[in-house]
Amino acid sequence: MLKVALRRFLLFVLTLWLLSIIVFLASHVLPGNVGRAMLGPFADPRAVDQLNHELGTDRPLLAQYADWLGGFVQGDMGDSFAMRQPVAPFVWNALGNSLRLALLALVLVVPLGILGGVLAALFVGRPLDRVITVGGLSAAVVPEFISGIVLILIFGVWLKWLPLSAAAPADAGLLVQIKYLLLPSIPLVLVLFGYIARMTRAGMIEALDSDYMRTAMLKGLKRSTAIRRHALRNALLPTISVVATQTVYLLGGLVAIEVLFHYRGIGSLIYTAAQKKDFPMLQAAVLVVGAVFILASLAADLIYAWLNPRIRLGGGE
Amino acid sequence: TMPRAARAAVPGGVLRMAQTVPAATLDPMKIADGGGITTLSQVGEYLCFDMPNLTLAPQLAESWSPNKDGTVWTFKLRQGVKFHNGATMTADDVVATINRLADPANGSNALSAFSGVLSAGATRKIDDYTVEFTLDAPNGNFPYYLSSDNYNAVILPAKEGAEFEKNWIATGPYKYESYTPQVGAKFTRFDGYWGPKAIADRIEISYYNDIQPQILALQGGEVDLILQAPVLQSVALLNDPNIQILTGPSTAHEQVHMRVDMDPFKDARVRRAIALCLDRPALVNGMMKGKAAIGNDSPFAAVYPSTDQSVPQREKNIAEAKQLMEAAGMKDGFEVTLTTEDYLELPEYAVLIQNAVKQIGGKITLQVLDQGTYYGDAVPGKSPWLDSTMGITDYGHRGVPNVFLAAPLASTGTWNSAHFNNPTYDGLVASYIAALDLEAQRASASQIQKLLLEETPVLFSYFYDFVSATKVGLNGVIPTAMGQIRLDQASF
Amino acid sequence: MTDATTPALAVEDLSVSYRVRGGERQVVHGVSFTIGRGEAYGLVGESGCGKSTIAYATVGYLARNGQISGGRIEVAGRDLTHLSGDELRHLRAGAVSMVYQDPGRALNPSLKIGRQMAEVYEPLGLGRREALSRAAEMLQRVRIADPRRVLDRYPHQLSGGMQQRVCIAMALAINPALLILDEPTTGLDATVEAEVLDLVRQLRAEFNTAILCISHNLGVIATLCERVGVLYAGTMVEEGTAAELFAAPRHPYTVGLLRCLPQRGRRKDQGPLDTIPGFLPAADLRIDGCVFADRCALARDLCRTTPPPLFDLGDGRRSRCHFWQEAPDLPRTEPALPTPAPVAADAPPLLGVEHLSKTFHMKGHSLKAVHDVSLQLKAGETLGLVGESGSGKTTFARLLLGLVAPDQEGSLQLDGKPLPGLLDRRSAAEGKALQIVFQNPDSALNRAHAVRRIIGRAIGKLAGLFGAARDERLLELTRAVRLPDRTLGTKPRQLSGGLKQRVAIARAFAGEPRLVVCDEPTSALDVSVQSAILNLFVELQAKRQVSYIFISHDLGVVRFLADRIAVLYLGRLMEVGPAEQVFSGPQHPYTEALLSAVPSIDGRRATRIRLSGEIPSASDPPKGCVFHTRCARKIGRICETEEPPLADAGPGHVIHCHIPVEELARLQAAAAQESAASS
Amino acid sequence: MSDAPLPLVASDGGAAARERRERLRVLLRSPTFLVGAAIILFWVFCALFGEAVVPLDPYADDMMNYLMPPSAEHWFGTDQLGRDVFSRVIVGSRDILTVAPLATLISTLAGAALGLVMGYYRGWADEILSRVIDAMLALPTIVIALLALVALGTSTITVVLVIGFTFAPIIAKTVRAAVLAEREVEYVAAAELRRESGLYVMFIEILPNVAAPILVEATIRLGYAIFAVATLSFIGFGIQPPSPDWGLSISTNYGLLTGGYWWTVLFDSLAIASLVVAVNLVADAMQAALHD
Ligand SMILES: Nc1ncnc2c1ncn2[C@@H]1O[C@H](COP(=O)(O)OP(=O)(O)OP(=O)(O)O)[C@@H](O)[C@H]1O
Ligand SMILES: Nc1ncnc2c1ncn2[C@@H]1O[C@H](COP(=O)(O)OP(=O)(O)OP(=O)(O)O)[C@@H](O)[C@H]1O
Ligand SMILES: [Mg+2]
Ligand SMILES: [Mg+2]
Q1: Nearest to C572 by CA among C353, C419, C420, C393
Q2: Residue ranges for chain B with pLDDT beneath 50
Q3: Who is most buried in B210, B377, C546, D255, counting CB within 10 A?
Q4: Would you call the peptide bond into B264 cis, given omega within 30 degrees of 0 as the criterion?
Q5: Cis status, amide bond into B58, omega within 30 of 0
Q6: Count of other CB atoms within 10 angstroms of residue D207
Q7: pLDDT tens digits for range C211-248
């Protein structure tokens, strides 16, 4: 188990390193004029050159990468082109905000999704199952900004129940914050519900049809007991990884929602950095998103392994 | 809207404003975008202030005057002006500020405005309250270069000015309280202000990535005003009973350039024909919802005092346009690509031009680029902006037409996308710029206007207003088309 | 509980159907049988005939789309078809239990054995500690030596045999009136199977439980059951006591089935095996007459129009055949075929294998799948390769073919010339000389390609024929393997298992191979199909002088085909020798154990040489003789420390054992006498 | 050996062919498939012939009649330039139905080829590529696309390429897994015994057998491609003005919602929703038919 964890951790570092290369290369494929992009078309060429030199964008690529990575390893994510100050506080702040939104969405959707999936599996082929699967699928694939707009229209503009923006006042308490985050989290709930319900349903159907479930039933156990004790546990194992892999979407994939709701999550940070070609900011934010994802899947793997005796205890005697 | 005096202003309270996130740092020397200018205008002041009606009001200078030929200008400074750190403003501060801006080593954003006008070291202290500027060339409109029009020219203390961003020391009615990049800025009343003290206790600016969330925030009551509401994006506000719209004239406009050195625009008749296709009143009233003024294919907007209003307005005339085309041997029309940036109403404007030109057989293919791509490296050969056969470029407000006349149209102009090269024109512009009195300016303007109508290298079909929006009942807001906003006398 | 005279199970006129894509598919047609208290009843039949369906109907646990469409089932006097949910639960909790195939899946992978066993006592209202101690007791009764430890394990930590014992313990824990065993040993090795069967027999005596045992393996049924019912296409075609039914079948299907088996030391030179032509009718096909009529050599018009009733033949024997009296004289279907000429003793070797080894390197450890194997094969000879699962048979086959790289030290020769280990290095001629027929024709044939393409491509690549020559060869080949021409245009999935295997054989023979490796080519097939394929192998060998390496776990099949036999254990060769000698002895103790593990149809069997313990892991084999951990004839420390020598047991017969050959012969003769005496 | 004619097929006549037809029939009878296919066909028709059938010129401006609510003349109202929203929604399907399928095609071709090579040859190249793919999959699609589009500049072609190559690793991963399983199937060993070339084994032997999952995966990716293109257009990095594209229209007009001009946004939103849902319904039905 410890060895597994160590192996996974080394893999994590390797993947992260590869990611850093991808991210760095992606932001340097075309030799754009950073200073010009920063200062705009009407700025004087002398000012542009001056800025390029200050930023060090006129140095060789490898040197820039080495510098950047070296800084990163020491916890220095570099300075934003646009802000001319360290990007780290921006990234951590945005990540914190994203985590808050993600947490709320997960808290809402995980129980709902599991419940939906279990119900669908129990009534497989029946109308309830069709409603949950087709409805879940449809909700999952509609872009979240579409559902976001509709929700804004209904709850924000017409009914005026919920604030239109996700950013709560700085001194807001927990409940107020939740109130502000509710509207943006619903599109995420809609998107994730389908995934989680689907995985749970598949796992549950498999578990319900399994031989060990049959064994349990033939022992004379009540169906509900057998489901609770035998089916559910095995059925929910795969759901763990779904939840983990969806964190990447929740942390970083929400560009549209964060833009729509004017929320300062990591998605909108990436978006603004992209708009402004603020590469240090973009690189740092993207890398952090990647790291969080890899960490989450690492955690999911370990939890999975821990809950699954076949992996936890290794092979036979 | 309510007359200003209808209610006595109650001191106190907080004014909350929405603004687009400043694109870069808030170093006055470097700022170049609305978010930065607005934020800065809460604490910073200029020697003179370009009022909404394009006349200069004294601010930190009390008066100014040129020498005979307009090559040396002398400014008398206001006395008793205190910086936020308590120091008194003197000529030393002004000289230091302006010289810093004009020095190429600092990479200041004002370089392009000062180039050919004012060099480093050309600013001199006469006495504690008198400053003298020796120009590179005669310039009748020089005070505008030191006014809020040149938004970088905020007067800063000589010593602390170089590190403004530490504590934002300037002379304005509000002083710095806090600034969180990307989030917002807060200001409190400066009790040592030289003029009437500010009414509201505090100003809070919240930054938004986009105009849409600003509109939502205004309608949702989270902010009290939006400084800049581009008309196409803020239609939702126009008929909202809880919102009042402040409209100010501006000389901001969209230039449609046609490269005079490339087919199909080598023949001026073709360029004129295209100009004749546009229904300018419809553009202004339809697309711009009435928040614009008709243009007459020259930078001389009607609001410029120097504009010759008697030059006949070009109107839509398809028959004449067709004749011109036939005369130019292009009866069967032409094909061309219209390149523009995805900014404000430019894509829509491009569509309208595309539709309009169809009437004379013109087939326009549209290419809408993101802003960065459109401007490219901003040098010929590396910039669709300067290289495209036909393009539309947004130009912000200028208090005087000098830049509009020179950079995009003069043969040496660095932004000459039309590649317009006309010695007569160049001469006329030089004499316009050198003219010191309005009469002389107007005379040159008239000739320029007529020449441009004939040549039409660039279409100026409208000048769009500067539109701000506030909650109903908020009075005393003074926005400028340049992006500054004075809130010290504003209140509910 | 009802009194002891009510039968443990009474099935009356049972019909079961499944809802498939909107339609009803009846798979059990009016089946009736009764199992008395303490009686063991066997249901045999080929795959898909409805055995499991009947079993699940009996415990009220049909698949979601299945339903009992007629008849009744009484378990210990209670009609299952009319029970409420709770009553059914009580019945399951106390009166009936079930053990099925694949014990690894029957146990919940994420719960400890103890927890799962304790659950059995839950409906009886036992406390947790009490339940656990009862569970331990139960494990002891299924001969698990260290019950406390096993209770604390997860299923995957136990071997297949252990898992099945746990399942049996769980099933017997409630002392049920009826225990249903559905293919309880399928998928287990013969040696493990034998153990489980022994265990069930002993437990039955102890618990006096009635047993319904379901299997496709006639031997298993014969070993375990007193009475037998034969199912064909969801219909009970014959019933009777095991002894009589197997000795004197009274239904053409049973007769045919028994004749298909290569039994009682039958060999290829004694003529071909019998076959049952044709196929099982589709479940949803409406048949007017006898379900077996299409495949029956006795069938007449009556059979095709009138379904036969279940004739009572007296003595509890019944047969659903209009002409049951004629059944024993069912005409043979197979004409005499050429048999391969015996291989000359001095024939030059075709293939030589010297010290062949294969080590798989995996994360953290390595595994010797084949270890130092040397043997020789002559042209036209068949070498049978036997051994338990995991003994390295397939790996050995792949080594010969060059599909996996052998370890450095070994070498191969073809016709006395060195043969490179890897396929890439072999010449074209060497490459096509060795071909293979895989176990599972479904995976051996590309399901995306038509039969013509599969065989044609092989002819093109291996025989180098194209155009008309290829087409000619294609037809010749398909006829040789008795593949109807019209199958050429079809995809493999449209063919039955037997036909698919013929396609695979045709492909293997496309380039006139010198040696064909057959890796369990019939174990995925039903008995009736198996015999036809075995006949085909014999015929092809007779006509083409090809050599075979024939891998199988079915010793009957190997005995039928093989001239010589090699026995593998943990990748090591235990014994090689002429087939007859290996079967008659003296044998390696492992061979002896394998042979004695085979359940035979006549119900008689040699005293079982029980293999104690589990197969050791191949990645950590025992020192000395690798078999010593399980050897019944282990003689002492020498077995644990020294690798056994090669002992010569006759011409071409070698045994790797520390016990001298003469001593082995003596011991084994004594054992044979003993068992003859006891039966 | 019996010379009696052997029945051709396993148990019942024509079983497999019938089964395939059966599968198709099941698919054609599945309501999800039918609904999905009908909607897709509708939009494809609109993309191909929309301009010819719409009542009004979707590009013609009518500047003085801007933002008119739905009426008999303008069923879905008019937009800021007085253009007919109904016609624009119909014609607006064209760009997304060009970009998304093209991107899907690229990703499927590239992904399938990559997956085949990785799964078949394995070894260090596979190891490295797998790591790179894993690293890429650690980022949300939108983020990768943003990163690439910022670097390359936004245009229809770059959007196609970027989405294509963003999805390719995902498809490669799926295909690789399928090929890894497939290459252990014995017909591959049989082909190797015939000394078939690697290309033949990959593309002639293995590919047809993994075609079904690739097809399903491609359909699912098509749904995501539409999702991604719409989202990118919405945030300004996708299809560029002046296209009547749905995502773009929403992006330009969603600010009008609070002014009560809901028709400028609602119909485009519904169009996107209907298209993605339809594609996914089809994918779902196909998957179900395959695993039935
Ligand atoms: N859930 C089901 N739905 C539809 N058909 C089924 C179902 N279960 C079994 N069948 C069909 O019913 C017939 C009998 O199946 P059953 O499993 O009872 O056979 P079996 O004799 O146990 O076969 P095997 O030896 O392969 O286990 C087969 O044709 C099978 O395809
Ligand atoms: N590719 C491989 N990598 C690692 N180990 C392998 C590989 N192939 C086979 N083995 C191991 O080698 C040993 C021999 O396997 P092999 O398949 O040759 O046995 P077998 O006698 O054919 O068994 P069966 O009767 O189950 O087919 C087993 O322990 C197996 O797990
Ligand atoms: Mg079965
Ligand atoms: Mg094998």
Answers
A1: C393
A2: 1-7
A3: D255
A4: yes
A5: no
A6: 18
A7: 999 998 888 898 889 999 999 988 999 999 988 898 88
How is C530-547 classified by DSSP, letter by letter? HHHHHHHHHHHHHHH--E
pLDDT value at residue B78: 94
Q: What's the CA gap between C38 and D148, in Å, rounded? A: 75
Contact A147, A261 (CB under 8 A): no
Query: Quick check: B129 and B58 in contact, CB under 8 A?
Result: no
Q: Does D277 touch chain A (CB under 8 A)?
A: yes
Strand, helix or coil at B269?
helix
Predicted confidence band of residue D8 (pLDDT cuts 50, 70, 90)? very low
For residue C49, give the ligand 1 atom closest to its CA.
Answer: 21
What is the greatest pairwise CA distance in chain D? 91
- Residue A217 CA to residue A226 CA, distance in Å, equals 6
- Cβ(B234)–Cβ(B466) below 8 Å: no
Asked if D66 reaches chain B (Cβ–Cβ under 8 Å), the answer is yes
| Dist CA C459 CA C282 (whole Å) | 34
> Alpha helices, DSSP H only, in D122-206?
123-137, 141-152, 156-183, 186-193, 198-200
Cα gap C99→C183, rounded to integer Å: 8
Instruction: Tally Cβ neighbours within 10 Å of residue A73.
Output: 10
Give the pair of three-digit tokens for residue B488: 């010290």
Yes or no: say if D191 and D200 are a contact pair by the CB < 8 Å rule.
yes
Could you tell me the pLDDT band of residue A180, with boundaries at 50, 70 and 90?
confident
Decide if pLDDT at D3 tops 50: no
Task: List chain A residues with CB under 8 Å of C144.
Answer: none
Angle between helices D207-234 and D141-152 in degrees, nearest 10: 70
Residue A70 has pLDDT above 50, yes or no: yes
Instruction: Decide whether any atom of ligand 1 lies within 6 Å of the C50 Cβ.
Output: yes
Residue D5 — pLDDT band, cuts 50, 70, 90? very low
**The pLDDT value given to residue A204:** 92
Candidate from C393, C590, C617 with most ligand 2 atoms within 8 A of CB, to mutate:
C393
- Between CA C214 and CA C49 the distance in angstroms is 11
Q: Is the pLDDT of residue C128 over 90?
A: no
DSSP string, C2-41: --TTS-SEEEEEEEEEEEETTEEEEEEEEEEEEE-TT-EE
- Chain C neighbours (≥3 Cβ pairs under 8 A) are A, D
- What is the C-alpha separation between B468 and B38, in angstroms, rounded? 12
**pTM to 2 decimal places:** 0.85
How far is C446 from C429, CA to CA, in rounded Å? Answer: 24
Q: Which two tokens mark D266? A: 């609602």
The tokens 């940036």 sit on which residue? B341
Q: What is the pLDDT of residue C409?
A: 85
Q: Count of A–D CB contacts within 8 Å?
A: 133
What does the radius of gyration of chain D's CA atoms come to, in whole angstroms?
24
Q: What is the pLDDT of residue A316?
A: 42
Ligand 2 lining (C-beta closer than 6 Å): C 360, 362, 367, 369, 387, 389-395, 618
- Label residue C334 by pLDDT band (50, 70, 90): low
Determine which of A122, A205, A218 to mutate to test the interface with C (most C C-beta atoms within 10 Å). Answer: A218
What phi and psi values does residue B257 have, to the nearest 5 degrees? -90, 145
Q: Give pairs for B60-69: CB < 8 Å, separation 24+.
A: B60/B89, B60/B94, B60/B155, B60/B171, B61/B146, B64/B143, B66/B140, B66/B142, B66/B436, B69/B138, B69/B434, B69/B436
CA distance linking residue C209 with residue C178, whole number of Å: 6
Q: D161-170, pLDDT tens digit by residue? A: 999 999 999 9
User: Chain-centre distance of CA A76, in angstroms?
Assistant: 23
Given a cut of 70, whether residue C576 has pLDDT beyond it is yes
